[in-house]
Amino acid sequence: MMVGESLVVSLCLSFRKASHVRLEWGGARAHSTLLHERGFVIGEKHRRGAEGWARLPAHACRPGMAVTRAMLATTAVGMSASLCRAVMEGLLTRWRTLPAQATCRLQLSGSIPCGLHHCASGRRKRLVLSRMFQPQNLREDQVLSLEGRSGELTCKSQRLMLQVGLIHPASPGCYHLLPYTVRAMEKLVRVIDQEMQAIGGQKVNMPSLSSAELWRATNRWDLMGKELLRLRDRHGKEYCLGPTHEEAVTALVASQKTLSYKQLPFLLYQVTRKFRDEPRPRFGLLRGREFYMKDMYTFDSSTEAAWHTYSLVCGAYCSLFNRLGLPFVKVQADVGSIGGMMSHEFQLPVDVGEDQLAICPSCSFSANMETLDLSQMNCPVCQGPLTKTKGIEVGHTFYLGTKYSSIFNAQFTNVHGKPSLAEMGCYGLGVTRILAAAIEVLSTEDCIRWPGLLAPYQVCLIPPKRGSKEEGATELLGSLHDHIAEALPQLHGEVLLDDRTHLTIGNRLKDANKLGYPFVIIAGKRALEDPSHFEVWCQNTSEVVFLTKEGVVELLSTVQVV
Ligand code: ATP
Ligand code: MG
User: Fold this and answer.
1) I need a labelling partner for 31 at 20 to 30 A (CA). Which of 76, 152, 187, 529 fits?
2) For residue 166, what are the β-bridge partners?
3) Rounded to whole angstroms, how far apart are CA atoms 436 and 159?
4) Nearest ligand to the C-alpha atom of residue 288
5) Per-residue pLDDT tens for 59-118?
6) Spacing, Cα 334 to ligand 2 middle (Å)
7) Using a 6 Å CB cutoff, which residues line ligand 1?
8) Is the pTM of this model over 0.85?
9) What is the number of the ligand closest to the CA of 345?
């Protein structure tokens, strides 16, 4: 292999330590020798390999030298941007002293594709839309044909999520979650983690395969009926795919034989797939047969402590929905097959919801109608008339007492040195359901709107159409991208470039509007003014403003990312 070729393929500079530059390449051993001769320190491990790396002391590079057209992927750790640039420039000068072949290839490599990024020469990585995996491309001529399927499309969120390629149907009640949805879900999980850990939650991860013995112990192997997805292993041993984990977690805690009251409470939670053979899976992610749930199980040493924990978790749920900007009601609810002494649901009031709620406008009373005596439609607290509304249940809390701990013998040593059963609570949040419900509540008929914190990407940049009068503004938008990346590192990975420049700005704006990026920034005619003005669409305020590069950075500096 020729030296120049492989240098171009994988030249990558990264700044691991402030004092050194690390340089990686793939190719023949010849590089090592060559680089060694040029004063690079060659990594011991790789000296004989076809791949390798070299170190160069940062002080050996002089600032102020011109950058050539080379592919550079840089990550700065503990190094200021200007020092980074200086080191890069110095390095490039050294590359230029390599044989003509290498230099020549470096100069020819205008742009090189690498994954989702477009690595234009000498610039920062740019995330580009054309490389996104979205089976339903948004252009009207390619929009997923929903004809003949209208019977299945029972609500707005399901229709929109299918149309824009957020989900793809796999089998009844099961969906592939596509990249944008996974990004939004990962953000939601981060917010949930923050809220759960703020009240002392510890994250665990329990198996989805749950043995029949556990479920027989609580009699739920029979009680759950057809909802339980059952299977057998090669030895004939029976299992179900966990629809919830009270049995598993209580057996886990019971296996710890020397627990003391001093160690309690335990607030154990997980975010995992749940399986329920729903009689009527529908509404897309709102009611699936396989879905993500956050389930927390708490273990306390007394009823008072358990009630305190119950109110802490309810408080954390309120805080979560407030942070997401989702209007919710907490209603008293039925305990259902989970059982226990008391339960509340967190509901998003919306017409497509499957639950009927009764809310008292004069006092704080609100309940799921299942819990009320329907002959009496007045508020049991203030006797005033109740208002009825529909809701989507997004969270459910249960005070369980010792229902499960008594069966599995989950006990601890109390303050008197005697064994005592743990007082339990369990608390569910429908993770995938929250995503769909948020879209259901916030979106218009045609355009998805996200809770700001969960938007898969915060910013979409739209350069001019290829061959248009404004084409000259393409580079200006590129440099705006790099400016944002440098000034607002918190937005790393959040800025997407719609590089489908064969389409008009108008068409791409329509797509961006449908996908609901909180900020859409267009380089149109006014980008060619001096100074450049970019057209900024702010989804949350429905405003369109023209801002300079500095104005854009100031506006985006307020964006919250999780
Ligand atoms: P529902 O009455 O809607 O069937 P549930 O009372 O059976 O809900 P829980 O067992 O309390 O639900 O589960 C906790 C949370 O998991 C629910 O509040 C809901 O947000 C979510 N969830 C339950 N079933 C589904 C499902 N089939 N698809 C998506 N999310 C679900
Ligand atoms: Mg259910």
Assistant:
1) 76
2) none
3) 11
4) 1
5) 443 332 222 222 232 332 334 445 545 555 555 555 555 443 333 233 223 333 445 666
6) 12
7) 244, 276, 278, 287-288, 291, 293, 336, 393-396, 428, 430, 432-433
8) no
9) 1
